[in-house]
Amino acid sequence: MSHELRTPLNSIIGFTGILLQKLVGPLSEEQEKQLNMVQDSARHLLALINDVLDISKIEAGQVTLYAEKFDLADAIRVSLEKVSPLAEKKGLLLSSVMVPESIEMVSDRRRIEQVLINLLNNAVKFTEKGKVHLQCQIIDRNVMISVSDTGIGIKAENIPTLFQPFKQVDSGISRQYEGTGLGLSICKKLVELLGGEIRVESEPGKGSTFMFTLPLQE
């Protein structure tokens, strides 16, 4: 099912990419605009399908974790690089601090990067001006990572439902900022599968900070 859903979407993304590169001939300004819209929509749909498949696998207990020894600094750098184009496009400052500068740990690197990218993407998405800051430190044999932003923030009454699947905090917000409401639920379930915890502190109009801990397991 997963393969059947992804294959045609990847074809749409790939072929529109070829057209946009003008490898088969020139495009008018309007044609280029419309093709960009097709490609953006296909990418958005692919992301939604991936989220639905992820949450389904997690809830069915079919997620396999692969533990490996790696430098957390590399995983953080890769995650920051993936969200930096969107931050630059919005004129946001994207920064990070890591103490110590290198942390060797044993865990599922790919899943940790998935959580980091999700939290960073969310922070950039809901921030119109200011900055997004990632901080990483070791506390009591655990790694603690926080992602802070100067975005719209979250009302106290909405925080309890924030990590529930298919929940979006406000109908007005969800119309402005599209999504399934699955990203944070996936983050929570993955962090817990990796032996950690996740929480949030937020104030409407002043921004949010999402924090999660993971066992170091050197």
Written account of the structure:
It is built from 6 helices and 7 strands, in the order H-H-E-H-E-E-H-E-E-H-H-E-E. The strands form 2 sheets. The chain has a 5-stranded mixed β-sheet, with helices on one face. A two-stranded antiparallel sheet has the order 1-3. Strand 6 and strand 7 form a beta hairpin. Helix 1 packs antiparallel against helix 2 and helix 2 crosses helix 6. The longest helix is centred in the first third of the chain and has 31 residues. About 2% of the residues have low confidence.
Which secondary structure elements does this structure contain, and how are they paired or packed?
Elements: H1 2-20, H2 29-59, E1 68-71, H3 72-89, E2 93-99, E3 104-107, H4 109-125, E4 131-139, E5 142-149, H5 171-176, H6 183-193, E6 197-203, E7 207-215
Parallel strand pairs: 2-4
Antiparallel strand pairs: 1-3, 4-5, 5-7, 6-7
Helix pairs in contact: 1-2, 2-6, 3-4, 4-6
